Amino acid sequence: MKIAKVLLLAGSVAVLLGMVTYASAQGIKLLTPENGMVGMGTMADLPIITLRTSTKAGKEMFNDTTLGMNTTGQSCATCHSAGGSIGGTAPMKWKGMEMQVAIPTLKGAAAHFPAVRGPMKVVTDLMGMNNMCIMTFMKGRPLNKNSHQAIDLESYVASLSKGKRYDPGAEKTLP
Ligand code: HEC
Fold first, then answer.
1. How far is the C-alpha of 174 from the C-alpha of 108, rounded, in Å?
2. 120 C-alpha vs ligand 1 centroid, how far in Å?
3. Choosing a second label site near 67 at 20 to 30 A (CA), which of 12, 28, 78, 87?
4. Which of 129, 131, 149, 166, when mutated, tests ligand 1's pocket best, judged by the most ligand atoms within 8 Å of its CB?
5. How far is CA 8 from the centre of its chain?
6. d(CA 24, CA 6)
7. Cis before 114? omega within 30
8. Distance CA 54, CA 29 (A)
């Protein structure tokens, strides 16, 4: 009986060691707080706040001309006025090429993500898209996706899609 238990334990240790060795050989990082991967710990660290207050805070960020410490004097509303679109295009530089990108409305936009966007055709989520606009068009610094600021901005942008049919992958909507 005892021998069986020892063998079982030794076997389990061997399997575990094998898994860790395999993972590191494949370059797979185990999810630990030490290597920067975060799990529920982050959620537990966020302040308790209602969706309503989060959306309200996000709306303020949306109209903030210094968001992401940008110095262009633009806010999200500069292009997406009241969550819609001012129409026309915005300039963008990619691989040295200047291009004009049509400005979509954000009404219903949140229901389209994840989706393929940008000249580099990457799959992005809504937060990624918000950050893309901060970086590309406002020349600001992106929000940490684990921060409540990023969630607040997402709450507001998502509120513009309330009641819309969820349609991941859909094209942007032009006015
Ligand atoms: C200078 C104009 C400009 C500003 C400022 C701007 N955006 Fe955008 N936004 C665009 C353009 C242009 C696109 C379309 C990009 C594309 O198709 O790749 C876009 C796309 C988006 C989308 C995706 C819509 C869809 O259906 O594809 C979201 C979400 C978005 N913006 C949110 C924001 C938020 C939030 C801010 C503020 C942090 C912001 N934008 C600031 C011009 C702007």
1. 11
2. 15
3. 87
4. 129
5. 44
6. 27
7. yes
8. 33
Q: Give me the count of residues in the chain.
A: 175
The one-digit pLDDT tens for each residue of the chain (175 residues) are: 577 776 777 776 666 566 656 655 665 655 554 555 555 666 777 777 899 999 999 999 999 999 999 999 999 999 999 999 999 999 999 999 999 999 999 999 999 999 999 988 999 999 999 999 999 999 999 999 999 999 999 999 999 999 999 999 999 999 9
CA-nearest residue, atom 12 of ligand 1 = 103
Q: With a 6 A CB cut-off, is 74 part of the ligand 1 pocket?
A: yes
Distance 51 CA to ligand 1 centre (A): 22
153 lines ligand 1 (CB under 6 A): yes
Q: How far apart are the C-alpha atoms of 172 and 69, rounded to whole Å?
A: 27
**Cβ neighbour number for residue 148 with a 10 Å cutoff:** 17
Q: Is the CB of 133 under 6 A from ligand 1?
A: yes
Which among 70, 79, 113 is the best mutation to test ligand 1's pocket, defined by most ligand atoms within 8 Å of the CB? 79
